[in-house]
Amino acid sequence: MKESVSNRRLKAGRDARRMWACVAWLSLWPVVVLAAAPDTAANLSACKNGWSSCERSRLTLVEMTEVAHADRARNLRDCRNGTSSCDRSRLSNAEMIAVEVARYDRNVSNCTSGIDPCDLSRLTRAEARETAAAVRQRRLSDCGLGIGPCDYPNLTPTEALERARLTGLETAEIEAAVGSRNLSDCREGRDHCDYSLLSRAEAHALASAEMARNYAACRDRRGYCDSSRLTPSQAAAIPPEVR
Fold it and tell me: I want to staple 131 with a disulfide (CB 3.0 to 4.6 A). Which of 85, 111, 153, 168 is the partner?
């Protein structure tokens, strides 16, 4: 009888532990579900974007279809943009035609704008004439406005005459633009600054601004400070612990 009662107690204890284990698992189930949902969505997003973190084995059939469509659209975009990740073998006939049209248009645009790569051999006669005209116009503009390289030897007599006419009519405007650009370069400390082009007033204003900047840098110990350029009054105004 004692053994029977002991067995019943052991069995009851095991049943109680199992019941509490089930209760604990059920209480954690919402946490597990909520944690898995974002992870699944993140994996789907990674696969659609072609990221290395994608685990295709975890995708459902519906998700695999979505990823396949995203892969195809991304490959078509890469091919249209001429990137190295393009896989032409995956393109349909219609997509291949669209890619070739985009490639042709990009080459024409590059040649007209003077951007590499440009394959002049692929241009039609009309496109070649338009490209040549664009090149001449850019060269003439560079020579007339002093912006960019100017190829004087390759100017035709008509272009040289047009440049002379432009310079004669708009010299003041061009010089003002060049002076304004140079003053901006000097203020910002750019390499293209030419101090010889500054007027006396501009040179004086720049010198005053630089003196003030140097004093502030020495006083606040922030930025480049040249203490040898401080005036006696400026040097005296800086606290000893800062010097």
Answer: 111
Say how many residues make up the chain.
243
In a domain, 83, yes or no: no
At a CB cut-off of 8 Å and minimum separation 6, what does 66 contact?
Answer: 44, 48
Residue found by looking up tokens 């002379």 in the block: 164
In this structure, what are the phi and psi dihedrals at residue 168, rounded to the nearest 5 degrees?
A: -70, -35
The whole-chain average pLDDT of the chain stands at 76
Domain hosting 21: range is 1-59
Reported confidence tier of residue 181, pLDDT bands at 50, 70, 90: confident
Q: How far apart are CA 107 and CA 86, in angstroms?
A: 17
Domain count, the chain: 2
**Which tokens is 70 given?**
């995203």
In a domain, 43, yes or no: yes
Q: Helices marked H in 82-156 — which ranges?
A: 93-113, 125-145
Lowest mean pLDDT across 36-40, 94-98, 123-127: 36-40
- Cα distance between residue 70 and residue 39, in whole Å: 19
**Cis peptide bond prior to 117, omega within 30° of 0:** yes
Q: CB neighbours of 135 closer than 8 A, spacing ≥ 6?
A: 114
| Single-letter residue type at 198 | L
C-beta atoms surrounding 81 within 10 Å: 13
Q: Taking residues 151-172, what's their average pLDDT?
A: 55
Burial group, residue 207, by CB count within 10 angstroms (0-12, 13-18, 19+): exposed
DSSP state of 50: T
> CA-to-CA distance for 202 and 208, rounded, in angstroms?
10
